[in-house]
Amino acid sequence: MSALGAAVEDGLTITRRNLVKVRRVPELIVFATLSPIMFVLLFRYVFGSAIPIEGISYAEFLLPGIFAQTIVFGSTITGASLAEDLQKGLIDRFRSLPMASSAVLVGRTVADLALNALSIVVMGVTGLVVGWRIRSSIGEALAGFALLLLLAYAMSWLMATVGLLVRAPEVVQQASFIVIFPLTFIANTFVPTNNFPAVLRWIADWNPVSAVVQAARELFGNTAPVLEASDVWSLQHPVLYTLLWSGVLLAVFIPLSVRIYRRTASR
Amino acid sequence: MHAIGKSVRELSVGPPTVRSMTDAIVVEGLVKRYGATTALDGVDLTVAEGSVLGLLGPNGAGKTTVVRILTTLLVADAGRAEVVGLDVQQDADRVRAAIGLTGQYAAVDEYLTGSENLEMVGRLYHLGKAEARRRAGELLERFDLADAANRPAKTYSGGMRRRLDIAASLINRPRVLFLDEPTTGLDPRSRLAMWEFIADLADGGTTILLTTQYLEEADRLADRMVVIDHGRVIARGTGDELKAQVGGQRLEFTVTNAAVLPDMVQRLRPLATDEPHVDEPGRRVSLPVSGGAEVLAEALRRLDGSAAEIVDAGLRRPDLDDVFLALTGRVTEETGEAGDEPVTAVGSAR
Ligand SMILES: Nc1ncnc2c1ncn2[C@@H]1O[C@H](COP(=O)(O)OP(=O)(O)OP(=O)(O)O)[C@@H](O)[C@H]1O
Ligand SMILES: [Mg+2]
């Protein structure tokens, strides 16, 4: 077997192992399905009742934003799960086997990608029930979902690095929330950014979360004239800007996390 | 084995035994530091192919560090380590394909069932799906886990996890097996069962490096032993050789009434090769002797007609606890705070 073939096979073996866990741990299913439903409903009816946006229903404005927020949060699972594997000595077991050193990380991030895709499907269906509509072509819509998942996948590798360095699942979870909350809120996710104070507006404009949300809105056809994006480059070319971010995150954190993994021992 | 010709004194410190062509493990001058802590301070050892080495030492001695380096999990700061003739650092992948590791803490995936755990490991050794499954079934049977094969490992007892962990390390029929404290935390019955598994493996020709804090365990399973303390080898040899270091055997009598002890000493002194030792609170007298069971018989004859009511009489060979005490001046238990008690004269330890 070629080295690449073996690496792919090892990655799949670990992916399968991680997905079995998803089936056996109810909390994970809840995290992946019920909480997105709850968020869609809460935002749709609580914020939606107070934030009228001319020319578009709040449900249509909201869904691309909440897709992005949920899957970015989902990346914390990657870090926390790896830290847990470290704590339980499983990484030692894996590292003593003649398997590809990328496999544990590939298997982790791919399983989390699957979990994110599941969340998106659940949210999408919920969104359709409460008034979200896709007003573009199937191709564009699929491109929108693909772009969201790509950024989420890249974030997963960032969190994988954090998980291997921090080593305590609870700390990974809590520390990353402190970063991810502002990251997903100082953006165009839930409200238009027109009235943000200047500094926040600047952050929101260059925030990759804003870009992926803007890109998704355009690809799903969930836009309105009044929502004309800022004329900063990032939001004028949201797809490209998102691809750039994803590419940079992957290029930095895949090699970095594999390197750290190679010299990580559990205790 | 290789060391048999050497004198006991040489065995206690000197260089490792001469390296043979059939050594499955060769370690030379291994050093590992963690910041200011020197976990290993120049460890040398060899393990002949097909033999069992017991690596003994108290908490923090460096046992796990040795195992981690040999199983490619850690990189040493200095020194050399070879397993099946391959450098553990340069040839890590080939080493991994030849070894099995059961770490100090069971590394099983709690969410997977017993058979899923083993199949996963089999797949990661690239055994192929069918073979991984077959091998998993075989090992579950052998380790008495067949009934629990389809339950998540979360529901397993400590002993079951431990067995599953060992089974996982055997999936690929390793030539060299590393067992880091395989029986710590097991109840006496599980410990006995584990000893049988390990003895079976050794009989089957697997080279085993086993770490333990239980001297009885090493005595029972290992062909040779290496004792380490503070990252240094303080003794090596067979169990018998190590025991010989603390002196020969002793005759011990425990009686119901301490008042008769002086009279007993009087009667027994002619048999002793050295000064008898009287333990009044323990109502016990102990004297170094040479010779076998006939000394005991002779002693009993001499005690005939004394007022002593003997509750226990025996010829006692020193066990490895005595060895450890004699070598380090400390007992092996964690209570060994009494750390700096001076080394007692060899042979009179305890
Ligand atoms: N990751 C680490 N960071 C810092 N110090 C460490 C680390 N791992 C081990 N040590 C230190 O190295 C020394 C040897 O540790 P090691 O785990 O090898 O001992 P051990 O003989 O296996 O002990 P035990 O019987 O308690 O398992 C100890 O002093 C320990 O504190
Ligand atoms: Mg240890």
Q: Any descriptors?
A:
heterodimer, A: 267 residues, mainly alpha, 76% helix, B: 350 residues, alpha/beta, Rossmann fold, Alpha-Beta Plaits, 4-stranded antiparallel sheet, 12 helices, 14 strands, 24% strand, disordered N terminus, binds adenosine-5'-triphosphate, binds magnesium ion
Structure explained in plain terms:
The complex is a heterodimer of chains A (267) and B (350). By secondary structure, chain A is mostly helical. Chain A has one domain. In chain A, 76% of the residues lie in helices and 0% in strands. Chain A is elongated and about 60 Å long. The two termini of chain A are 33 Å apart. Chain B has 350 residues and is α/β, with parallel strands linked by helices. In chain B, the strands form three sheets. In chain B, strands 6-7-8-3-9-10 form a six-stranded mixed sheet, sandwiched between helices. The two termini of chain B are 29 Å apart. At the A-B interface, helix 1 and helix 4 of A face helix 3 and helix 4 of B. Bound molecules: adenosine-5'-triphosphate and magnesium ion (MG). Adenosine-5'-triphosphate binds next to strand 2 and helix 2 of chain B.
CATH superfamily of the largest domain in chain B: P-loop containing nucleotide triphosphate hydrolases
Give the N-to-C terminal Cα separation of chain A.
33 Å
Query: Total number of β-strand segments of chain B?
Result: 14
- Judged by helices, strands and strand pairing, the structural class of chain A is mainly alpha
The total number of structural domains of chain B is: 2
Q: Residue share in helices of chain B?
A: 25-40%
Radius of gyration of CA atoms of chain A, rounded to a whole number: 19 Å
Written as H for each helix and E for each strand, in order along the chain, the element string of chain B is HEEEHEEHEHHHEHEHEEHEHEEHEH
Pair of chains with the largest interface and how many residues each contributes: A-B, 27 and 30 residues
